[in-house]
Amino acid sequence: MKKITQIICVLLTVTSMNAQQEKGIIGYTNWLSNWSEFKPHKVEYGEANQILAGNISVNTKLLKRNIYVLQGNVYVTNNAVLTIEPGTLIIGDFETKGTLVVTKGAQLIAEGLETDPIVFTSNRSLKKAGDWGGIVLLGDAPINKFGNIGSYNLNLDPSLTTYGGDNSVSNSGILRFVRIEFAGKNIKGADAFNGLTIAGVGNQTILENIMVSYCGGNSFAFYGGDVNATKFVSYKSINDDYKFTQGVQCRLYNSLAVRSSYLSSNKDGSRCLELKGYENKNETDFTKKQTLVEAANITVLNDSDNINADIQSGLVKEAIYIAENASLEMKRSVVSGFNPAVLLDGKTQINDTNLKKIIFEEMYFNLCNGNILSEGSSNNEDLEHWYGNSLFFNVHSKSDNKETFVDIFEAKRPDFRLQLGKITASSSNK
User: Fold this and answer.
1) What are the φ/ψ torsions at residue 381 (nearest 5 degrees)?
2) Each residue's pLDDT tens digit, 134-165
3) How big is the CA angle at 245 (ends 240 and 250), to the nearest 5 degrees?
4) What is the number of other CB atoms lying within 10 angstroms of the CB of residue 67?
5) How far is CA 361 from each of CA 15, 288, 368, 392, rounded to the nearest angstrom?
6) Which phi and psi angles does 143 have, rounded to 5°?
7) Rounded to the nearest 5°, which phi and psi values hold at 194?
8) What is residue 423's predicted lDDT score, i.e. its pLDDT?
9) DSSP secondary structure code for residue 421 in this structure
10) Which residue of 33, 228, 229, 305 is most buried, as measured by CB atoms within 10 A?
11) DSSP β-bridge partners for residue 208
């Protein structure tokens, strides 16, 4: 391998002052307070008095005074705008696996308030992951498939589920202070739905303060597009917390993923972040932009009481997986309790070119069995040496969750911010 140390100075523009910035999710106060819910199984929801079904082809407003049941596949079509008042409750029907699809050109304006969030949940008395479909948001921003067009099928109407185009500044609406609970229905012979699917969505779409909890599939899945995502929360997903593919250009900021050792998919593993260049290589146009995620102030953690025992038992895998042709620039973030922290696709050659596309700076790696490794490799000295260079200001620690975070075990309002004392910890690799 080339002397990769020669390009350190090209990559690094940080100073010693930057090394003192806060890591992980940030805020003078706990921004999860008021609108989030970590015990949705115990919330008593009322009975629906309105039905949503079929196509919504004209501008429509859902009112807080009603409770809506989402029956079957509901499509917002014909460039219509579906507006949802703050505090509105929409219940996904278990029997028909209710799903909301906002087609290309239409908009969803779901603008809740911190004290009055919009909630999508299950109508079962005993709620479980995968009770209903989820929310599918489709736009006309670029993707890297030939023809710039994809289709999100999963037993949906193929004529209403196309996405992609050439408008990176398109606007599919607003989702702010929204909770999505127990979504992710499983499709026989195919993938499960995601809690929130964001496909070909442009950067004028506002996506802030969105929580997906107990999802049967991926909590958030990005298929192409040009997306800004702020204050996202994925809580105890069965599959990935954040999946990125098909050339998405995503800026993910101040967001959280909480995994459980005992909830995972048997299919291909469950990660906090999974980055892929494509779903099908033969359909991919490599002259187009490939998947790039710029992530800052992210916290991903396993909330186990005994991380080491769960790792030894094989219950814990990598937090972040980066496939070939995908790029990640991750800064000021926390990865706690994984095996290892980051796994690179074995097809990715460890050379100067690829290391310029996979950046980790000012990170806090805690309780991880290995930091940044290459899949299938028994010798990761080059990677450990590269990312362990003191100029990157990456920190390594072996603290339990109680010592690492402010208070993640407070039942009603957990606080996943990093303890202040940890921010300026030693950058020892031990």
Assistant:
1) -60, -40
2) 999 999 999 999 999 999 988 899 999 999 99
3) 90
4) 17
5) 11, 27, 17, 5
6) -130, 170
7) -95, 160
8) 55
9) H
10) 229
11) 176, 230
Distance between CA atoms of residues 316 and 368, nearest Å: 10
> Pairing state of beta strands 242-245 and 220-223?
parallel
List helix spans (H) across 275-348.
307-312
Token digits of residue 4? 């990769």
Task: Please answer whether residues 192 and 238 qualify as being in contact, where contact means their C-beta atoms are separated by less than 8 angstroms.
Answer: yes
Environment class of 344 (CB within 10 Å of its CB; exposed 0-12, middle 13-18, buried 19+): buried
C-alpha separations of 301 from 260, 320, 374, 411 in Å: 9, 11, 21, 17
What is the percent of the chain where pLDDT is above 90? 73
pLDDT of 422 reads 62
Nearest CA to 246 out of 301, 218, 283 is that of 283
Q: Residue 363 corresponds to which tokens in the numbers above?
A: 């990170």
**3-state SS, residue 104:** coil
Per the CB < 8 A criterion, the answer to whether 303 and 280 are in contact is no
Dihedral of CA 228/116/73/98: which sign?
A: positive
**Strands 342-344 vs 372-374: parallel, antiparallel or unpaired:** parallel
Average predicted confidence (pLDDT) for the chain: 90
Which of 424, 405, 354, 415 minimizes the C-alpha distance to 382? 354
pLDDT of residue 379: 75
Query: What is the pLDDT, as a whole number, of residue 289?
Result: 95
DSSP 8-class letter at 194: P
DSSP code, position 408: T
Please state, in angstroms and rounded to a whole number, the distance separating the CA atoms of residues 340 and 238.
19
Is 429 a residue whose pLDDT tops 70? no
Is it the case that residue 186 has pLDDT exceeding 70?
A: yes
Name the residue among 277, 107, 271, 108 with its Cα closest to residue 178.
108
Question: Phi/psi at 283 (nearest 5 deg)?
Answer: -100, 5
Tokens of 104: 């290309």
The DSSP H or E segment spanning 382 is: helix 381-387
Both ends of the chain: CA-CA distance in Å?
A: 25
Whether the Cβ atoms of residue 205 and residue 225 lie closer than 8 Å to each other: no
Cα distance between residue 203 and residue 188, in whole Å: 33
275 three-state secondary structure: strand
